Amino acid sequence: MCWPAGCSAKAGSTGNRPNDVNARVDAMNLTELLRAISIVAQTGGTPGQCEALGREAQALADMVGWATGPIDASGQLLDRLAALQDDLKIRYAQTNETALALLHDTLTDLGRAIARHDRDLDAKSAGEDEDEGEDLT
User: What are the sequence ranges of the domains in the chain?
Assistant: First the structure.
């Protein structure tokens, strides 16, 4: 599994899709997902598109634990998710489309999963570093 921004691996899919929001959203990588959500937040989208993007965000959140290293060591990804959530709030205020609110909530879930994963890795590596220096004899 590949998580860094710019990663081109897809979760369970091969082949390329157009970069527009109308493309099928199954098995998007994180970069593609964020790009599609940005388009919806800026230009609007159908409830079906929002729901499909929300499902994809939830699928990625469910797979976060499989990543072997930190997903967002620099914190830039969580900042990007927060900015997208702000954009979705603005679009929701303009349209009152409930699917936008649901998409916002799935981004919250994704961000929390990433933060928890990276925090757990930090705690685990800190514990391993401490154990290496101990002499138990």
Answer: 47-58+74-127
Question: Among candidates 44, 63, 62, which has minimal Cα distance to 103?
Answer: 44
pTM, full prediction: 0.72
Using the CB atoms, write b or e for 101-120: b if 16+ within 10 Å.
ebbbebbebbbebbbebbee
Torsion over CA: 110, 5, 73, 68 (sign): positive
Would you give per-residue pLDDT tens digits along the chain (137 residues)?
333 333 333 333 333 333 445 444 456 889 999 999 999 999 888 999 999 999 999 999 999 988 889 999 898 999 999 999 999 999 999 999 999 999 999 999 999 999 999 999 887 777 655 545 444 44
